Structure formats: C-alpha cells, structure tokens
TrEMBL record:
Organism domain of life: Bacteria
Taxonomic source organism: Streptomyces cremeus
InterPro entries, per the entry: 3-OHacyl-CoA_DH_NAD-bd, 3HC_DH_C, 6-PGluconate_DH-like_C_sf, 6PGD_dom2, L-carnitine_dehydrogenase, NAD(P)-bd_dom_sf
Protein's UniProt name: L-carnitine dehydrogenase
Binding sites annotated in the UniProt record for NAD(+): 20-25
C-alpha cells in the first residue's frame, strides 16, 4: 500500500494535533508539550478544555522532574473549536477517542479527509487492529496504531503496528517520530488484538479475577504478590530474561528442560502451548538475542542492582545505621 510521503521528517515535526482529550488524549497532550511541541487539541465534550488544562497542570510538576525539552511550555497548547481546525496545519495527528469501533472508523475517516496530505495519523486504540479501523478512510495507507500506556506522559512504551492497508513507510515514520518524541517503541511485525503488553496484562488480570471469584486470594494478596515479588524484577528485566536466570548458568535452555513439564500443571486457567522443539528453540534463541552479549553472571548482577534500586526508590529498604550509631 502506497501513500503520499509525509511532508516532513520525524525530526522536523513541530506541530502535533491530539484528537480526543480524555485521560489518554490529555496525557498525550501533556507529553508532547513537555517535549517542546506546539499542540492543538480537540474534543467534542463541552467541558473538554477546562478538564484538559487541569490535567496538563496536574502533570506538569512530574514532567518538570523528568526534565522538560528546550522551549517546552504548557502555554503552547491551543484548544480548537472544530476537528478541521485542530488538524489543519498538523504535522502529526494522535487520535485518542473512546474504544468503540464504529466511532473509530468514522473519526479516522474524518481525520483522513481533514489532515494535510501525507501527514501520519496514529490511533491510541488499546485493542482494535488498524485493519478493522481503516476501512472507511480514503487514504488508509497513512493510518497506524500508536498504542501508549497510561499515563502517556510518564510510561515510555508505545506499540506501533500498521493494518493491512497501512504503508510500510508510515509504520517506519511513526516509529521514528515516537522515538524522537522521547518514547520507547516496539514496532510490531504483525497485528494481534490487544497488541503485546495488554495481552500480558489481561492474562494476569483474568487469573486474578478467577482467584478472587474462587476465594483463593484477596485483592490485597494479589497486589502484594506483584509489588513485593515479580514486579520488582519486571521494572527493568522482562519475564523472559527473568525466567532465563532461573536456569542458572544453563540459562533458558536449562530452565525449559527443568520447568517445562510444569506447563501442564494447573497453575493458571490459561491453556499452555505445546513446548515442542520449534517453540523451545525460539525461546532460547530469543533470550540469547535479548541478552545482547551479556553473560548469565552479568544479568544476575544487573537484576540484583535493579531490585535494590527499586526497593530503595520506593522506600522499602531498612535505613542503614551509620558507623556512630549503636546497634539496638
């Protein structure tokens, strides 16, 4: 699928339009403002502007602590009266409307008709494939998913993926733009409902609901099991490399040999895939690639430092006594 070339390079974008100014859309507004962009926002709600400005004001202290880009200012926000006005001179458009498929289709059609030719239009959808949303647009090639995490002004991740009619150039341009705008980008090779992180979150969420429904655990216990357990590691090392370290010096291969049979144990309500040779090899090779030359010893040291840093940052390490203090 071909589409007109974007009118400027990702590095040259100065004006961003945010369509939809709720929690996610407003978070995007705050992020782009903090990165030094001029932002024009539009939302059909009659009280959208005061709510949006309150959200930006509330986020600004955190953004200031993170570090503002040169020239960043909350006053560089304009709230437009119409959708057409919002995108008239935009160099990038971020759509963040409610998760209703027909609404998304209609809105993306209108944005495609109103935005300058070639300007990339990204959707913040949390689950719909772009293939299902781009059906009514005259130029579907410039439509792409840019899925953030709440709040977008704090959480770095954006998952980028095109639909069947999205051009490869659009996907590459959007991924580069988000990187320039200070985000951590996963560019997906194919569509999957819910993308990557939401599917993982949803699996944990559903199992938690099962445990509560069956009286197997309380809400407090479930939350503590993450914040005091694997969540400490997940803050800096994902589940795959974390599990690789469970294999000791043998890494993921030893872990799969040792713990692979437990996939058949009733530890969750999810059906486990068959651990055949193809899956085994893909997981082992993927962990080797993710390690990027780091040895198991290197990864263990990195994990240990990270856990200590997280515990210290969240105030959960006991205070160290100074040399002059007597032991109690």
């Amino acid at each position: 699928m071909t589409s007109p070339t974007p009118p400027c390079a990702p590095e040259d974008v100065r004006r961003v339009a945010c369509v939809g100014a709720g929690v996610i859309g407003g978070g995007w507004v705050a992020h782009f403002l903090a990165r030094g962009y001029d932002v024009t926002a539009w939302d059909p709600a009659p009280d959208a502007e005061p709510k949006l400005r309150r959200l930006v004001d509330a986020a600004w202290p955190a953004l200031t602590r993170l570090g503002l880009a040169e020239g960043a200012c909350a006053n560089r926000l304009t709230v437009a009266a119409t959708l057409q006005e919002a995108v008239a001179d935009a160099q990038f458009v971020q759509e963040s409307a409610p998760e209703k498929l027909e609404l998304k289709r209609n809105l993306l059609r209108r944005l495609d008709a109103a935005a300058p030719a070639g300007v990339v239009i990204a959707s913040s959808t949390s689950g719909y494939p772009m293939t299902d949303m781009q059906t009514e647009a005259a130029d579907p090639g410039r439509l792409v998913v840019g899925h953030p995490f709440n709040p977008p002004y704090l959480i770095p991740l954006v998952e980028v993926v095109g639909g069947e009619r999205t051009s490869a150039g659009t996907v590459a341009w959007a991924s580069r733009f988000y990187e320039v705008a200070g985000k951590s980008v996963i560019t997906m090779d194919r569509e999957v409902p819910g993308f990557i992180a939401n599917r993982l979150q949803e699996a944990l969420w559903r199992e938690a609901l099962h445990m509560i429904a069956n009286g197997e655990a309380t809400v407090r216990e479930i939350d503590a099991s993450i914040t005091e357990g694997p969540g400490l590691r997940w803050a800096f090392m994902g589940p795959m490399l974390t599990f690789a370290l469970a294999g000791g010096e043998g890494g993921m291969a030893h872990m799969l040999d040792h713990f692979g049979p437990s996939l058949k144990s009733p530890w969750t309500r999810l059906e486990a895939p068959e651990l055949d040779r193809k899956l085994y090899d893909a997981v082992v090779a993927g962990c080797d690639e993710a390690a990027d030359g780091r040895t198991i010893a290197d990864l263990v040291a990195e994990r240990d430092r990270g856990v200590i840093d997280v515990l210290r940052a969240t105030g959960r390490l006991p205070r160290q006594r100074t040399a002059g203090e007597a032991a109690e």
